[in-house]
Design a protein that fits this description.
This is Phenylpropionate dioxygenase-like ring-hydroxylating dioxygenase large terminal subunit. By secondary structure, the protein is an alpha+beta fold. About 25% of the residues lie in helices and about 25% in strands. The chain contains 9 helices and 19 strands. The protein is globular.
């Protein structure tokens, strides 16, 4: 085992030293075993994650389809930082720190449409470019310089219709780091798709448990025997090598399973039904699932893209910003409701396992077991490597 990495200052417990030694090894070699429980349950480690993973990386906070019109906005908290995400008067998406430059109250709450944002505490107002427009009763204040009172701007980029921010402003250009991934998803035309549905919810598990679960096919047979497992068995998973910034795997369909392309829709009772046009694309026999580290999870098909953005709230609570998009107009309400019901069933199966997993990971008797072969849990190894390098390098 390597020497403890200087990741933490101050006093560390024996379990924390073990975790950091493990991560130091994983940063240099491919993981063979699962992570110690502290990886998911330690408050000290969670603080390191906030600083070294979430502040220093490009982090997905939503989909451009959530802001269809000029003036549309939504708010989100990212590792304790309140953010205001909006489409300005020229159609550009901007992200600001959602804190008034007077005494720090929130400038906006929830989501909506506005031509100007007014802090409800003292009525300082800001335009859609973040500039201070009005500060009541401050005309005689010689210290007020409106030019210095704009809302702080957060580094922002759009990739494949997803909105990313980098809190510390030092991350390398996202489009460059994800260039190898784009060759796998080019035919899905994600940038041309419209958002059909989105919502937020909170699960009682560590964000990393969910990130790992979404991106491995090993659990499909046991966790989803009557949903995903009927179409894509665990044994049909195929790991796709990443580059340290993303991970991916193909979830191949079982022989005879209906193909998920524009030519197929969910029929009554969640049973896929064939329409008149047969699929002709080479890639129709599988779903392509990928993760952009640290928090964007995507399952791509020719007929629909499902995604989840993970927002850690605490060591055992995570907010999911989830949705799906697709080519063309939003489907009819009954088809939409049917697909949502199917997704909810799949998610409920995962959620039940992940919330009991969080309980088990706290056990002092838990000893990490060996990981399954690459096609089944290679994506988990990819994720471990990303976190380890961010924490220990």
């Amino acid at each position: 085992m390597s020497q403890t990495s200087p990741c933490l200052a101050g006093t560390m417990s024996q379990s924390e030293r073990l975790l950091l030694d493990t991560l130091s090894n994983v940063a240099q070699t491919r993981a063979t075993h699962a992570m110690p429980g502290g990886f998911y349950t330690s408050q000290e480690f969670a603080q390191l994650e906030r600083e070294r993973v979430f502040r220093q990386s490009w982090v997905c906070i939503g989909h451009v389809g959530e802001l269809p019109a000029n003036g549309d906005y939504f708010t989100v908290d990212l590792v304790g930082e309140p953010l205001l995400v909006q489409r300005d008067g020229k159609g550009e998406i901007r992200v600001f720190a959602n804190v008034c430059s007077h005494r720090g109250n929130l400038v906006a709450i929830g989501r909506g449409n506005a031509r100007i944002h007014v802090c409800g505490y003292h009525a300082w107002s800001f335009d859609l470019e973040g500039k201070l427009k009005r500060a009541p009763l401050m005309q005689d204040c010689k210290d007020l310089d409106a030019a210095k009172c704009s809302l702080p701007t957060i580094s922002t980029t759009i990739w494949q219709n997803f909105i990313f921010v980098n809190l510390d402003g030092t991350a390398a250009p996202l489009c460059e780091t994800l260039a190898p991934l784009e060759s796998h998803i080019r035919d899905y035309n994600l940038k041309e798709r419209g958002l059909h549905y989105s919502r937020e919810e909170v699960w009682n598990t560590n964000w990393k448990c969910l990130a790992e679960n979404f991106m491995e096919g090993y659990h499909l047979n046991a966790t989803h025997p009557k949903t995903l497992g009927t179409r894509s068995g665990s044994e049909l998973s195929e790991h796709v090598p990443g580059n340290g910034h993303f991970s991916a795997y193909r979830s191949h369909y079982k022989p005879g399973a209906p193909q998920r392309t524009e030519a197929f829709t969910l029929g009554r009772g969640n049973a896929p039904q064939r329409e008149a046009v047969a699929p002709s694309r080479e890639e129709s026999p599988f779903s392509f699932n990928f993760s952009v580290f640290p928090n964007l999870l995507v399952s791509s098909n020719f007929h629909r893209t499902a995604y989840v953005c993970l927002m850690p709230l605490s060591i055992d609570r995570v907010e999911l910003r989830l949705g799906f998009d697709g080519p063309g107009e939003k489907p009819e309400s009954d088809r939409l409701a049917e697909f949502i019901a199917y997704v909810d069933q799949v998610n409920s199966e995962d959620r039940a396992k992940l919330e009991t997993l969080q309980h088990g990971l706290r056990s002092s008797f838990y000893k990490p077991g060996p990981l399954a072969p690459e096609n089944y849990e290679g994506t988990v190894r990819d994720f471990y490597s990303f976190v380890a390098k961010r924490i220990c390098n």
